[in-house]
Amino acid sequence: MQTFSYSKEVSRAKRDQKPIVALETTVITHGLPYPANIKLARDMEKQVRDGGAVPATVGVVDGKICLGLEAEQLGALAQGEGLLKISRRDFSGALAKNQSGGTTVAGTLTVLAQAGIRIFATGGIGGVHRGAPFDISADLPTLGLSPAVVVCAGAKAILDLPATLEYLETISVPVVGYQTDEFPAFYSCTSGFQVSVRADSAAEVAEIARAHWDMGIQTAILVVVPPPAQDALPQKAVDKAITQALEEAQIQNIRGQQVTPFLLNRVSELTKKASLKANLSLLLNNARVAAKVAVAFGN
Ligand code: PSU
Ligand code: MN
Prior knowledge:
Elements: E1 5-6, H1 8-15, E2 20-23, H2 26-31, H3 36-50, E3 54-61, E4 64-67, H4 71-79, E5 84-86, H5 91-96, E6 101-103, H6 105-115, E7 119-121, E8 128-129, E9 132-136, H7 139-143, E10 149-152, H8 161-170, E11 175-178, E12 197-199, H9 202-214, E13 221-224, H10 235-251, H11 259-270, H12 274-297
Parallel strand pairs: 1-4, 2-3, 2-7, 5-6, 7-10, 10-13, 11-12, 11-13
Antiparallel strand pairs: 3-4, 3-6, 8-9
The protein binds pseudouridine-5'-monophosphate and manganese (II) ion.
């Protein structure tokens, strides 16, 4: 078993059996520019604390897997150079070489399963890419292996959403609409696709999660929360920017781990940062909802 490095706040929370919400760090290392990234990381942690839970931001610093980042560790991930994007397969290399990086949804879930933390907030999960059905984020298979509640705004809108939903069905991950019947499209509240079950409160989410795991099904519960209405973008407006960004990615031969950060950044430029505003707003909102779920779920 790998050993983890717990922050003071998180080890105290574990000892006192306080509700904990995990947060990922690829959004800090690869998703957002400095200093918006460090501000966002701190603001998400604050949302979790204000909601009565303890934030456990997960990342890898100098080859150590951290649960809860002290100020200088967060600074290293927000401003460092040569930082890795650490998905499930990337821990081994990072640990062996004492490297640092942000953990993706898949990477973070891999750590949580061992640490016994059940509630996790992120922006949007990875999924099946458009026009490249062989390009499937490791987030998807890892959701099928991880008994955690993942609070997000759906899958990133740059993806093939219907194919991503089919994959989630195959791996038996309930898609729980938080106060909605419709699967949100990350920047937008609507996608035209349905969720598999609706929950109107955090207590109801917690009940669904308990019932799921009491069945012996060790998969994740994906809780999808529409982005806050005041910052959400109309689906049509974003789709134009996404189509253009996808074309550019193909022309520039963008591959592998670079695809998602490239597309998110281009969509932000093409929407004159409206998508960035929506992204930041939904991240904070998801942290808020996850704190409520953690408090309702207890231990
Ligand atoms: N949500 C955001 N911004 C991001 C991500 C999520 O608002 O940058 C990250 C997550 O860490 C997710 C990853 O796991 O993008 C997916 O990358 P890929 O498609 O390469 O697996
Ligand atoms: Mn990929």
